């Protein structure tokens, strides 16, 4: 008989965790869909980027949304601030390079090194990975589409800002909804289903 109570508590925690995981995953999926749709429609309306850039923009906005969509609003805001600062740093670095030089592998390597060194020296080592990934994407895409390569940093900054905005708003809404939806107790589940849940 004494073992029944811990079993009930464990089962209740598992149900709660499953519900939280499902709602978080579904909310993330909705936010990713929205960020993809917003940026691809926005780029399509602008009529100044090819279809490939629209799709890349959608992917990049989704990545930003995934990056900032966390289980708590404070975590989401911290992730967003880190993502914005790293993206802005990469934006400046990549734009300066692409206004002067075309894409070259040595240029990519040089910018990655500069980014890592500068961010380490200013005490932002946690931004190195995000900034260098952004720089790599921007430069390689500029190499794939060399005409107007300087647009790539601008477009990726726009994609990131849309993705972050959707992720932050979505995380806020999802957290508010999660607080309002009651988690059923084991007694409620037993009553609804007429099953003997240990």
Tell me what the structure shows:
With 198 residues, the chain is mainly alpha-helical. It has one domain. 81% of the residues lie in helices and 0% in strands. The protein has seven helices and no strands. It has helices at residues 4-46, 51-68, 73-100, 105-121, 128-144, 151-180, 186-193. Helix 1 runs antiparallel to helix 6 (151-180), helix 3 (73-100) runs antiparallel to helix 6 and helix 4 packs antiparallel against helix 5. The radius of gyration is 22 Å and the shape is globular.
Features:
7 helices; 198 residues; globular; mainly alpha; 0% strand
Overall pLDDT level = 85
The helix content is: over 70%
Number of contiguous helices: 7
Provide the β-strand percentage band: under 5%
What is the N-to-C succession of helices and strands?
HHHHHHH
Distance between the termini: 11 Å
Tertiary shape: globular
| Total tally of structural domains | 1
Low-confidence stretches: none
Topology (SSEs and partners):
Blueprint (H helix, E strand, L loop, with lengths): L3 H43 L4 H18 L4 H28 L4 H17 L6 H17 L6 H30 L5 H8 L5
Short account of what is shown:
The chain has helices at 4-46, 51-68, 73-100, 105-121, 128-144, 151-180, 186-193. The chain is mostly helical. The longest helix has 43 residues, at 4-46.
């Amino acid at each position: 008989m004494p073992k029944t109570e811990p079993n009930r508590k464990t089962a209740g925690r598992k149900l709660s965790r499953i519900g939280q995981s499902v709602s978080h995953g579904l909310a993330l999926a909705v936010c990713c869909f929205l960020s993809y749709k917003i940026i691809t429609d926005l780029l399509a309306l602008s009529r100044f980027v090819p279809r490939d850039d629209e799709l890349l923009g959608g992917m990049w906005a989704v990545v930003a949304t995934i990056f900032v969509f966390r289980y708590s609003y404070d975590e989401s805001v911290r992730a967003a601030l880190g993502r914005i600062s790293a993206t802005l740093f990469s934006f400046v670095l990549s734009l300066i390079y692409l206004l002067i030089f075309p894409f070259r592998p040595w240029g990519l390597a040089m910018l990655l090194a500069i980014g890592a060194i500068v961010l380490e020296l200013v005490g932002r080592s946690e931004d190195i990975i995000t900034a260098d990934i952004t720089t790599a994407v921007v430069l390689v895409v500029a190499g794939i589409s060399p005409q107007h390569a300087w647009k790539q940093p601008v477009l990726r900054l726009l994609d990131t800002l849309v993705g972050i905005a959707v992720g932050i708003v979505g995380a806020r809404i999802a957290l508010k909804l999660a607080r309002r939806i009651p988690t059923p107790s084991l007694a409620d589940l037993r009553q609804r289903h007429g099953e003997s849940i240990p």
